[in-house]
Amino acid sequence: MLAQVIAKNALALGAFAIITTGAISATYLGTKDRIELEQRAAQARALTEIIHDDQHDNSMLDDTILIDDQELLGLDHPKQAFIARQQGQFVATIIPATAHDGYSGDIQLITGVYADGTIAGVRVLVHNETPGLGDKADRKKSDWVDGFVGRSLSNPSIERWSVKKDKGEFDQFTGATITPRAITHAVARSLQYFEAHREQFTADSATVKEQP
């Protein structure tokens, strides 16, 4: 009798699991394309916040270079750098980086760099910094990251690419130093990576297509 009850319950649980899995799979397959389109649109909006639509005529989402660098960019796995072109000529790139020395862990950011090595813009994408303090690095919370726009490795010199508390050029947040220090250093390293790989980024679109 007990065995029959157990078998009956097992069959019921099995049937429930099959139906639930089927429903989840059907929902995923039915919305997969729409989700991918929305993710692509969101990604495009993030890129054009830094490199505006009137500054390029290509699709940055489709013009990319796969980069993998731990030392300067702090990347744990390969990521795409996006390229902006005007009539096939390099205008700017958007480079991903991870700062591993944030107050509450990793900070993921992107840095837009023009052909002349000046910064087009910086956006913090993912962080776990303290609300009300470290989260001011988020462009939605404050315009602090705009302080990097127009800067380069010669403006200021690399020795002054730090916060003012460390005798550098850049402001820190009121009550928070670790977060702006980590981001400032990560942005400087992104500029150094661009300069070290300038030819790869600035190659014309025909050359890029020939790369493996």
Kindly describe this structure.
The chain has 212 residues and is α+β, with helices and mostly antiparallel strands. 37% of the residues lie in helices and 21% in strands. It has helices spanning 2-50, 178-196, 198-202, 205-210; strands spanning 64-67, 79-86, 89-102, 105-114, 119-126. Strands 1-2-3-4-5 form a 5-stranded antiparallel β-sheet. The protein is extended. The protein starts with a helix and ends with a helix. The model has no long low-confidence stretch (mean pLDDT 87). Belongs to the RnfG family. The modification FMN phosphoryl threonine is found at residue 177.
Cα radius of gyration in angstroms: 23 Å
The strand line-up of the biggest sheet is 1-2-3-4-5
Inertia-based shape: extended
Enumerate the spans where pLDDT stays under 50 for 5 or more consecutive residues: none
Q: Order of helices and strands, N to C? A: HEEEEEHHH
Mean pLDDT: 87
Alpha plus pi helix count: 4
Q: In total, how many domains does the architecture comprise? A: 2
Number of strands: 5
Biggest sheet features: 5 strands, antiparallel
Taking the alpha carbons of the first and last residues, their distance comes to 67 Å
Q: How would you describe the oligomerization state of the chains in this entry?
A: single chain
Helical fraction equals: 25-40%
Structural class: alpha+beta
Residue fraction in strands: 15-25%
